[in-house]
């Protein structure tokens, strides 16, 4: 079957008045962006509170639908066959052959729903539905009508041409990226943070990212893994500006000066501070982490409080109530899992203590950090200044 158009459905709840235009315009922009490097020609436009993608030239159906399935804000993607109007008898034949091709197994129930935006068409929508329904019933003895809970709703829209569609591919849901500002994701090579970025982005938030590595203790391949993960998240979130921070000197300095059971917490506090610096410079409205209560020692309520203590921007932790398996399920769905489980060293695991504090006291931690006063400001500025920026498309 050759589809000439995709009709894109979006959730309309809560988007009224001026917001609706913003929402639709952002959606059109994101759909164009998603298809920008795809074979074929695509005309994306909105019309009568709907969004259409008209396709021309050779295109790969799987490729296009895979890309559309990653656009936040779409709840359904309907592949449409456009028929030239050659009279009703011809339409009947074409709709019958559409059904034949779409549904190999005819033991299904169906109904026809019609809309007529061209009012000069010789039949009204009731008549169109009834007569096409009849033609389908006549053609396929096994098929049945069910007007209340049909397996298949055949939609007919009479415009200049006649649009026929019956299949709805579920969309990604959420809101179009760009309708809710931007946030800075602390992206490690683990399972959790890519999922966290995906989830916040799903609500319409653009993503930037910061990754801390510790060469030569962490390898180039560990960094490449994070770049790969950013690329996977970018398929949903759009372009990501990734800051890669050399954290080695700060980590070594903390290791030298501070109690070892507090290393992880102090390190995490410096990560947050540096990420926040980039966030503010680039107009991000919050930070995002992949933390979840109690998952590890650095994610107890006390540890989260100690990490949070250094931030002035809100910290979004979309996985806070998720169990690991629930996070893995999303990671698999968005195709980051296989990359995340590649075994490369992480900067946190290298300097980790045998028995980290699980209930850090913020005052104690602050006092420990005073031991860093001699050099930490210079190291901090150096880490910020030397950060590498990778633009992920
Ligand atoms: P993840 O799977 O996301 O790495 P995790 O279970 O390994 O999470 P931690 O290592 O405690 O948990 O990290 C908690 C959060 O801190 C991460 O989700 C991430 O947002 C941030 N983070 C940890 N390490 C780094 C890093 N090297 N660079 C950037 N962010 C990091
Ligand atoms: Mg980690």
Structure, described:
The chain has 393 residues and is of the alpha/beta class. Helices cover 40% and strands 21% of the residues. It is built from 14 helices and 15 strands. The chain has helices spanning 17-34, 61-68, 88-102, 125-139, 192-201, 220-237, 248-257, 263-281, 301-308, 324-333, 337-340, 347-350, 362-370, 376-385, and strands at residues 5-10, 41-47, 50-56, 74-83, 109-116, 144-145, 152-158, 162-165, 169-170, 182-186, 206-213, 240-246, 287-288, 315-316, 388-392. Strands 1, 2, 3, 4, 5, 6, 7, 8 and 9 form a 9-stranded mixed beta sheet that branches. It has a 6-stranded mixed beta sheet with strand order 14-13-10-11-12-15, sandwiched between helices. The longest helix is centred in the last third of the chain and has 19 residues, at 263-281. The chain is elongated, with a radius of gyration of 27 Å. The protein starts with a strand and ends with a strand. The relative contact order is 0.12. Bound molecules: adenosine-5'-triphosphate and magnesium ion.
Short structural summary:
With 393 residues, the chain is of the alpha/beta class. Helices cover 40% and strands 21% of the residues.
